[in-house]
TrEMBL record:
<keyword id="KW-0520">NAD</keyword>
<dbReference type="GO" id="GO:0016616">
    <property type="term" value="F:oxidoreductase activity, acting on the CH-OH group of donors, NAD or NADP as acceptor"/>
</dbReference>
<dbReference type="GO" id="GO:0051287">
    <property type="term" value="F:NAD binding"/>
</dbReference>
<dbReference type="Pfam" id="PF02826">
    <property type="entry name" value="2-Hacid_dh_C"/>
</dbReference>
<feature type="domain" description="D-isomer specific 2-hydroxyacid dehydrogenase NAD-binding">
    <location>
        <begin position="117"/>
        <end position="289"/>
    </location>
</feature>
<protein>
    <submittedName>
        <fullName>2-hydroxyacid dehydrogenase</fullName>
    </submittedName>
</protein>
<dbReference type="InterPro" id="IPR050418">
    <property type="entry name" value="D-iso_2-hydroxyacid_DH_PdxB"/>
</dbReference>
<feature type="domain" description="D-isomer specific 2-hydroxyacid dehydrogenase catalytic">
    <location>
        <begin position="30"/>
        <end position="314"/>
    </location>
</feature>
<dbReference type="InterPro" id="IPR029753">
    <property type="entry name" value="D-isomer_DH_CS"/>
</dbReference>
<dbReference type="InterPro" id="IPR006140">
    <property type="entry name" value="D-isomer_DH_NAD-bd"/>
</dbReference>
<dbReference type="InterPro" id="IPR006139">
    <property type="entry name" value="D-isomer_2_OHA_DH_cat_dom"/>
</dbReference>
<comment type="similarity">
    <text>Belongs to the D-isomer specific 2-hydroxyacid dehydrogenase family.</text>
</comment>
<keyword id="KW-0560">Oxidoreductase</keyword>
<dbReference type="Pfam" id="PF00389">
    <property type="entry name" value="2-Hacid_dh"/>
</dbReference>
<dbReference type="InterPro" id="IPR036291">
    <property type="entry name" value="NAD(P)-bd_dom_sf"/>
</dbReference>
Length: 315
């Protein structure tokens, strides 16, 4: 009988459960697991299920029973993949489950930023300013058309491509950015710096690697138009948060919408979170762009399928 340990159950909405395997097993799950708790909880596991719990080489070497780490996400940055392979521990993630909902979230952010929707709701309606202004409308924040805007997409995988498709459907021009520092430009791509200079909205969909960490920093933000917006639904560390906040406060760019931060959950005193309470041009959602009902259903079913296939085939 195999021992299955789910280390961070709260990473999946409570409305959805991973289907239990058909083979004999013991199932234990925890709402969340700290680094100090991981070894004790995983030491007898044949299969670990996790989204974000860290498994480095030293920890993996202390888990001789472990055969599979089933990731309830696409990213595997929390696992030392080289060490896992050397130790014969399989790692299986899930791709494609959010290919509809993340692009829709991005499109919603584009409209919210360009039409100042959150600012009007928060500052003019719920504050009673509209009710007491003495006129039928209260135009106090900029409203600019989405149609005709230039969207710069960084990362041309399934998410970036779908964002581009949706953007073109509402009349936007789409530029796909070539890798930073590339000496040749592939067909269908535009040089990295040119996209930053031309785009009215920049949206990030590239994986987090050593070369993409802090891809958006003081230098790259300075290349953007002062009327441009930044959207990040990819990975938090793609953006230098200190540089972004400085750019927002100093008018280097017009605004930003984020679904991811460097540290999640963020500290209560996270400067961006605090700034979002007072800045009309900063919108933050709590890493939910992926989490539509259909996307979560697909995710949990695929995790279950990955486990079943591994036990049956060893792959």
């Amino acid at each position: 009988m195999l021992n299955i340990v789910f280390l961070d159950r709260t990473g999946i909405p409570a409305t959805h459960n991973i289907p239990r395997p058909s083979f004999p097993h013991n199932w234990i799950e925890y709402d969340r697991t700290s680094a100090e708790e991981t070894y004790e909880r995983a030491k007898d596991a044949d299969i670990v299920i996790t989204s974000k719990v860290l498994f480095g080489r030293e920890l993996l070497a202390k888990l001789p029973k472990l055969k599979l780490i089933a990731i309830t996400a696409t990213g595997t940055n929390n696992i030392d993949l080289v060490a896992a392979k050397e130790l014969g521990i399989a790692v299986k993630n899930v791709t494609g489950y959010s290919s509809v909902t993340v692009p829709e979230h991005v499109l919603g952010m584009i409209f919210s930023l360009k039409h100042s929707l959150m600012s009007y709701h928060r500052d003019q309606v719920t504050s009673d300013r509209w009710a007491t202004c003495g006129q039928f409308c209260y135009v106090d924040y900029p409203i600019t058309d989405v149609r005709g805007s230039i969207l710069g997409v960084f990362g041309k995988g399934c998410l970036g491509t779908e964002v581009g498709r949706l953007a073109e459907m509402v009349g936007m021009k789409v530029l796909y950015a070539e890798h930073k520092g590339a000496t040749t430009i592939r067909d269908g791509y535009t040089p990295f710096e040119e996209v930053l200079k031309q785009a009215d909205i920049v949206t990030l969909h590239c994986p987090l690697t050593k070369t993409t960490q802090n891809l958006i920093n003081a230098e790259t933000l300075a290349l953007m138009k002062p009327t441009a917006y930044l959207i990040n639904t990819g990975r938090g560390p793609l953006v230098d948060e200190v540089a972004l906040l400085d750019a927002l406060e100093n008018g280097t760019i017009a605004g930003a919408a984020l679904d991811v931060l460097v540290k999640e959950p963020p500290a209560i005193d996270n400067p961006l979170i605090q700034a979002a309470k007072r800045l009309p041009n900063l919108l933050i959602t709590p890493h939910v762009a992926w989490a539509s009902d259909s996307a979560v259903t697909t995710l949990v079913n695929k995790v279950a399928q990955n486990i079943e296939e591994f036990v049956k085939t060893g792959k």
